[in-house]
Amino acid sequence: MIRRLSHFLLCLAIAFLVVKPAFSAGSDIQINTARIEYSGNTYKLFTSFSLDFNHSLEETLLHGIPLYFKTEIEIIRPRAFWFDDVPVSKSRTTRISYNVLTRQYSISIPGTLQRNYSSLEDALSAIRYPPRWAIADSTDLEAGEKYDVGVRVMLDVSQLPKPFQINALNNRDWRLASDWKWFSYRP
Is residue 125 within a helix (H) or strand (E), and if so which, with residue range? Predict the structure, then answer.
């Protein structure tokens, strides 16, 4: 019985290693710049990305279906003898849509940005170079402490209509994501 169980677990582990690359998120989005700036008692994240749309995403936009890109940040203070402290863990969603009647692309970041663009390239530029994002107050981070900061960006397929979510699971064109970009920061 134990021999069969260990054989099954070994086969399962091998199958997972073989299949995992097909299901893992690709590095289709590259984070070019990620840094924290302090001004006005607020820590702000400055980022820039490399992002190109494939044909499937362009067609979806042209049919009036909005796409959502989620940016996540985690600021971690490592501790030697206890769990790491995570004073900041946030996400922000950027929505890109196309209005068929006005033939304009729209970019919106809740509470920050709402703009229209006449071309897809101009709209993508707004996504590639988002405005600075207030991520923490001066009281959230301790001066002199060393923090590890992680940032990533991905196409958020959970906000798509259900038929597109199913398609996104089966189609590589829909799995846009960056790897975590880690850097150190000392306030």
Answer: helix 120-128
pLDDT band of residue 167 (cuts 50, 70, 90) is confident
SS percent in the chain: helix, strand, coil, step 5 = 30, 40, 30
Residue 145 vs residues 44, 70, 77, 89: alpha-carbon distances, Å: 17, 28, 8, 17
pLDDT higher for 56 or 36?
A: 36
User: Starting at the edge strand that comes first in sequence, how are the strands of the sheet with 30-39 ordered?
Assistant: 30-39, 42-50, 133-137
The kind and range of the H/E element at 10 are: helix 2-23
Tell the residue number behind the tokens 């597109």, with chain if given.
Answer: 164
pLDDT digits (tens, 9 = 90+) for 149-163: 999 999 999 998 888
How far CA 136 is from CA of 23, 45, 150, in Å, comes to 34, 9, 14
The whole model's pTM is what? Answer: 0.80
What is the number of alpha carbons within 13 Å of residue 64 lying toward its C-beta?
A: 4
